[in-house]
Amino acid sequence: MQVGEYFEVLQRVRERIGNLTAEELKCADVFGIYGKGKTARAVKEFLDKKGIRSFMFDDSDWGKKGLEEILANLKHVEWLVVSPGVPPIKVLELFKKKSLKTVMDGVKVLGDIDLVWGFKKGYYAAAVTGSKGKTTVTTMIAHILGKVAVGNVGIPPARVCSEVDRNLEDLVLEVSSFQLEYNTNFKVKVGCILNLWEDHLDRYGNLDTYWRIKSELVLHSDVIVIGEKDLEKLLKFFDVDENKLVVVGRDYIRQERKFYRRGNLLGEFDNEKIFGFRLDNVLYAWAVVDQFGMSWNEFCKQLRSYEFLPHRLEFVVECNGIVWVNDSKSTSTDSTVAAFYSYYPKKNVILIWGGYDKKLDWTPVEKLPAKVSIVTGDLAKVDVEADYRFVKLEDAIRKANELAEPGDVVLFSPATSSYDRFKSYEERGEFFKRFVKIEVCEQGT
To answer: Fewer beta carbons under 10 A from the terminal one: N or C of the chain?
Structure first.
């Protein structure tokens, strides 16, 4: 195992994470909240409703006036809630600031998931992590079990628990690697590691650090669901009791649309709106839900009313016999490869990919047997293999439309993030859908 400097810095920050008790949290006079985004605002609302003082700050506050205000507030802080987007080096620098040294001594660090858990105690129902597909599987599990999906799905648990006094067992978590960095105490009944693929090298520097942090979900879980291909990676970092493991590909298997549990055929899955790698999402969801005692037939019944989230193999339109698909959520090479083979070889695929250069190995996408490969965004400026390259996405769409023939699928699956031009994969996906409908298919607004 070769975890790098990033993990060493994280461990130094984690030395300040205390053992959480509701009594200790309730007795705190003031909480500092490092961040001002969605998670930070939800944490503040959660604490406000408990009558506990808190204040938010971020790096933009380090002007002279901001520093004076922060110093005045930090004198009373006992806990610092760190938002998941804040890198550990920033937290470490905060504790090292000469101007804050005397007031930061003894301050303990935690994340938002641990904060809610510390007040509520008990177990979250389930938690899902992985490189790709975790939002789909999290919302699928929550829908089938009649629970609420929170966390990296965009709904902080603190917000949900502020609005209604919910028990933790009502919540299904999606946890990113960023969230696992500062949340080290919470417990879940069933954890699920979907996949450990190459991603976030721009943050972590190497795969071992990224995979190690993802694998930490096993430390929080009574039972851990993991794919057979990823089991070796997990065991590289942690010794896991065999009785705790549920292995997809060994205990739960899919052969096309036939699903098996420990060698026994459960049935053939006949939901036609679910195809390609979505069937693997269903397999992982079933492996988790089965731990709660639901029957296969009831699982399939509940799944029929599940609506897939946008920007994930999302059908946009069919015009002139050409199908356009928006898969803007695919931000890694592995997810784009999986999306491609959801259609190929049954259909010829024109692939539009590219965006922000995350410095990944692009070979898996370059080698896909696409009818036409069109790269766009910042990747169009670097040395990647493609038939055509356009910096502007709209130019790539026009070229795809020019080359497509009836029966083809035009798949927009970027294999990287959107930050070269768009604020998010959602904004990028909405742009793609709007441009295709209005400019290509002339469907108006």
So the answer is: C
Query: Phi first, then psi: what are they for 54, rounded to 5°?
Result: -155, 160
In CATH, what is the architecture of 5-113?
3-Layer(aba) Sandwich (3.40)
Q: Where are the beta strands (DSSP E) in 50-131?
A: 53-57, 77-82, 108-110, 124-129
- CATH fold, domain 120-303, is UDP-N-acetylmuramoyl-L-alanine:D-glutamate ligase (3.40.1190)
d(C-alpha 201, C-alpha 358), whole Å: 7
Amino acid at position 6, single letter = Y
Please give the Cα distance from 414 to 376 (Å, whole number): 8
Q: Please tell me the number of Cα atoms within 13 Å of 285 on its side-chain side.
A: 27
Query: Other CB atoms closer than 10 Å to residue 401's CB: what's the count?
Result: 18
Q: Do domains 5-113 and 120-303 have the same CATH topology?
A: no
Greatest CA separation found in the chain? 70
| One-letter identity of residue 203 | R
60 burial via Cβ count (<10 Å: 0-12, 13-18, 19+): exposed
Residue with tokens 């599990």: 141
Mean pLDDT of 1-29: 81
Alpha helices in 260-418 (DSSP H): 278-289, 296-303, 333-340, 363-366, 393-403
Domain ranges of the chain: 5-113, 120-303, 314-439
The pLDDT tens digits for 203-257 are 888 889 999 999 999 999 999 999 999 999 999 999 999 999 999 999 999 999 9
The pTM assigned to this predicted structure is: 0.86
